[in-house]
Design brief:
Blueprint (H helix, E strand, L loop, with lengths): L2 H42 L18 E8 L5 E8 L2 E12 L5 E10 L17 E9 L16 E2 L4 H8 L3 E8 L20 H33 L2
Parallel strand pairs: 2-6, 4-7
Antiparallel strand pairs: 1-3, 1-5, 2-3, 3-4, 5-7
Helix pairs in contact: 1-3
Keywords: Cell membrane, Membrane, Transmembrane, Transmembrane helix
Membrane topology: Multi-pass membrane protein
Family: Belongs to the SURF1 family.
């Protein structure tokens, strides 16, 4: 067989091997995410942490029952957040922890936006005394695409916890709390938080696409190089 004759089989073999490898890589990523999901569920099933037990990022996803006082004047309203198909704000307020010098950001819930006045903040009840907050530990609030630098003020697109700690002068712990509890029980906020999405279906979808492309390469080679020439013979 000539060098040119080897070129097409080699290209087909390389393409099939590469696409199959990418498909298995996506399945491996899905397996990693499945293990992570199991770890998250295991952490959520452990006893809730109290003020004195709060530490660092190794406690991510643990349940908490905290006591402290809201730093209401430092509340941040994260814009363009949706819940139950409606546009509005995520309300984030620091909680100064009782018996400690630190505070922690609490993602308290969702409030609707005034469609006629985007700068008008909805009324949210924030008790002045010591409160108990139940929830789970999470990383910083989810980020949305933002062009340019974020503007300071109560209404923001995103919130950088480290920069906000410097801005507010608060000693913030490196995690946030996603508050749980009945929606609108005492503050008018909704808390229909979606389950953490690790993107499992995305990896399975990509794996299917790569395997389908692999099958297509093999199928085309077999048809045009092996079957079709034989069918043309008299």
């Amino acid at each position: 067989m000539t060098r040119r004759g080897w070129l097409l089989p080699a290209a087909a073999l390389l393409g099939a091997a590469l696409t199959a490898r990418l498909g298995f890589w996506q399945l491996d990523r899905a397996a990693q995410k499945t293990a992570l999901q199991a770890a998250i569920e295991a952490e959520a099933g452990r006893p809730a942490l109290a003020n004195a037990e709060l530490g660092g990022e190794q406690q991510l996803h643990r349940r908490v029952v905290l006591r402290g006082r809201w730093v209401a004047e430092r509340s941040i309203w994260l814009d363009n957040r949706a819940m139950d198909g409606r546009a509005g704000f995520f309300v984030v307020t620091p909680l100064r922890l009782a018996g400690r010098g630190e505070a922690i950001l609490v993602q308290r819930g969702w409030a609707p936006r005034d469609p006629l006045d985007r700068q008008r903040l909805p009324a949210v009840a924030t008790p002045a005394g010591e409160v108990e907050v139940q929830g789970r530990l999470a990383a910083s609030p989810s980020r949305l695409l933002e062009l340019g630098e974020g503007r300071p003020g109560a209404i923001r697109q995103n919130l950088d916890a480290a920069a906000f700690a410097v801005e507010s002068g608060l000693a913030l712990l490196p995690l946030t709390v996603v508050q749980a509890g009945p929606a609108g029980a005492d503050d008018g906020l909704l808390r229909h938080w979606p389950a953490p999405d690790l993107g499992l279906q995305k990896h399975y979808g990509y794996a299917f696409q790569w395997f389908a492309l692999c099958a297509l390469i093999v199928g085309l080679y077999v048809w045009f190089q092996l079957l079709r020439p034989r069918l043309r013979k008299p």
